[in-house]
Amino acid sequence: MSKAIRISRVGGPEVMEYVEVDVGAPGPGEVRVRHAAIGLNYIDVYYRNGAYPQPLPAGLGMEAAGVVEAVGADVTHLQPGDHVAYAARPPGAYAEERVMPAAQVVRLPAAIDFDTGAAMMLQGLTVQYLFRRTYPLRGGETILFHAAAGGVGLIACQWARALGVTMIGTVGSDEKAALARAHGCAHVINYNKENFVERVREITGGAGVPVVYDSIGKDTFTGSLDCLAPLGMLVSFGAASGPVPPFSLQELASRGSLYVTRPTLFTHIARRDDLEQMAAELFLMVGSGKIKIPVNQRYALKDAAQAHRDLEARKTTGSTILLP
Predict the structure, then answer these.
(1) Where in the chain is the domain with CATH 3.90.180.10?
(2) N or C: which terminus of the chain carries fewer CB neighbours within 10 A?
C-alpha cells in the first residue's frame, strides 16, 4: 500500500484526505513512478473546488518527478531506474507513487534534480508554449505578464530576458516586485498601488503592448484588453480571480481588432513529438543556467491542505513542492 491525497467531494482544502491506496502494476502503455517530489499548481485548486469537474473520488496534482519502478508492455522509451518528470492528466500526482500513461513521461537530464524537475514541468512548459507557440516572441517586443512573482511568472521573467524581450509584470506587493525584478522583469507594477493600464501606457509611450499573458482572469480581463496595441493578442491562460464573465465581441473591435485566445498546456503536449520538443527546450534553458527554478516553499505531502491555503492566500512565491 502507498499514501496519497484523495478527494471524495469538491470544496475547500479540508476535502483533501491523506489515505492508503493500492497502486498496482502498470498495464500496456503505462509506467509506475515512485515520486521524489511533487509540484503544486493553481490548477490543483480548480480541480479541488470543482471549477474543473472530474469523476469522484479522485486524486489531485498534475506534475512530479521521481524514479520509474516498472513499465508495462509496449513502453520502449523508459525503463526501470530512469529518472523522470511529467506534467500530465489525469490528476493524481499527490501520491507516493502512481501508475500513469507512459507517453506523458519524459526522462529527466542528469543535471536537473528531482525538486527542480517537479517544480518546473507544468510551469516551465506553460511558459514555453506561451512564448514559443501561442504568441511566438522573437526578441525586441515589450509584453505584459500578470502575476510576475508566481511560479510561472518568475520563469517567464527569466525566459523573456533570455529572448531579449522587455517584460512588464504585475504583482501584489513591494516584496513580490523586488523578486520579479531580481529574476529579470524590466518594469514591475504593484497593482495595489498603481493603475496597471495607466502604467503600461506610460511605459510604452501610449502605444500599448502586442501581447498580454493573463492568468488572473476576472479581475484583470478588461484592463488587459485596454493595454493592447491595435491587432494585439490577449492570452488568457488561467482564472485565479475567477472566470472571465461573458463579453461582447464588439469589445475587441472597438479597441483595435484585438485577438483573444484561451490555450491550455495539455492541448500543446497531447502529441508525444510536441512534448519531447517542448521539454527539450525547457531542459536546455534550465540546464544552461538561463532559467533557474526558484523552489521557495516545501511541504510534506500530508500537509497538502495547508499548502493549498497558502497558495490561495497568495502567500507563496515562485514554485512550491510537496515531499512524499
Answers:
(1) 2-121+266-323
(2) N
For the chain, where do the domains classified as CATH 3.40.50.720 start and end? 139-262
DSSP code at position 126:
H
Q: Tell me, what's the pLDDT at 1? A: 85
Q: Which residue reads 508566481 in cell numbers?
A: 150
Looking up cell 523573456 gives 160
Q: pLDDT by residue (tens digit) across 71-90?
A: 999 999 999 999 999 999 88
Instruction: State the Cα–Cα distance between residues 6 and 21, nearest whole angstrom.
Output: 9
- Kindly tell me the sign of the dihedral angle through the C-alpha atoms of 271, 137, 183, 310: negative
Closest by Cα among 141, 150, 121, 156 to 291: 156
| pLDDT higher than threshold 90 for residue 273 | yes
Q: Which CATH number fits domain 2-121+266-323: 2.40.50.100, 3.90.180.10, 3.40.50.2300, 3.90.1150.10?
A: 3.90.180.10
Please identify, in words, the CATH class of the domain defined by 139-262.
Answer: alpha beta
Instruction: Kindly state the helix (H) or strand (E) to which residue 67 belongs, with its residue range.
Output: strand 63-71
Mean pLDDT across the stretch 163-173? Answer: 97
| Nearest CA-CA partner of 1 in 22, 32, 31, 24 | 22
Neighbours of 82 (CB within 10 A): 18
